[in-house]
């Protein structure tokens, strides 16, 4: 795992999409900047993520169909979903039963169904 400086962000490129992304990262909360970005940085859930396990093989082969993560706050559900979305061609749709209302849940599920065909 690469060492990270908690209080600074590397200087952004001069212009272009990477500059916009870097500017957004500088303004992101510390917790968001420290969030793991790769499976190698992700800690926990090794029973499903270690090399050779089904979920790990599906991620590496970009063969993710649909996943629903369930569990208490702070266990890495959103972080793992974002890592999977970044590593694969998957569409990441964040829905929370606590934060989303029924209409938002239906829209998200309908959008997923439409993408499937």
Distance between the termini: 40 Å
Under CATH, the homologous superfamily of the largest domain reads: P-loop containing nucleotide triphosphate hydrolases
Largest sheet entry: none
- Mass-distribution shape: globular
Percentage of residues in helical conformation: 40-55%
CATH class of the largest domain: Alpha Beta
CATH architecture of the largest domain: 3-Layer(aba) Sandwich
**Total strands:** 0
Q: Mean pLDDT, nearest integer?
A: 83
Structure classification: mainly alpha
Distinct helical segment count: 6
Number of domains: 2
Runs in which pLDDT lies below 50 for 5 or more consecutive residues are: none
Protein name: RuvB-like AAA+ ATPase domain-containing protein
GO molecular function: ATP binding; enzyme activator activity; four-way junction helicase activity; single-stranded DNA helicase activity
Organism: marine metagenome
Keywords: ATP-binding, Nucleotide-binding
Layout: helices, strands, pairs:
Blueprint: H1 17-27, H2 30-34, H3 46-49, H4 54-60, H5 77-87, H6 102-116
What tags apply to this protein structure?
117 residues, mainly alpha, Rossmann fold, 2 domains, globular
Outline the structure in words.
The chain is 45% helix and 0% strand. The chain has 117 residues and is mainly α. It has two domains: 34 residues, no CATH class; 81 residues, P-loop containing nucleotide triphosphate hydrolases (Rossmann fold, 3-Layer(aba) Sandwich), CATH 3.40.50. It is globular and about 40 Å long.
């Amino acid at each position: 795992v690469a060492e990270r400086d908690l209080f600074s962000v590397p200087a952004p490129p001069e212009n272009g999409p990477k500059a916009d992304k870097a500017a957004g990262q500088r303004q992101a909360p510390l917790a968001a900047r420290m969030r793991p970005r790769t499976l190698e940085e992700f800690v926990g859930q090794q029973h499903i993520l270690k090399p050779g396990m089904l979920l790990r093989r599906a991620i590496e082969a970009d063969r993710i169909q649909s996943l629903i993560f369930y569990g208490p706050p702070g266990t890495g559900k959103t972080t793992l979903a974002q890592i999977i979305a970044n590593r694969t061609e998957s569409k990441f749709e964040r829905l929370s039963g606590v934060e989303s209302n029924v209409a938002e849940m239906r829209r998200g599920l309908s959008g997923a169904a439409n993408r499937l065909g």
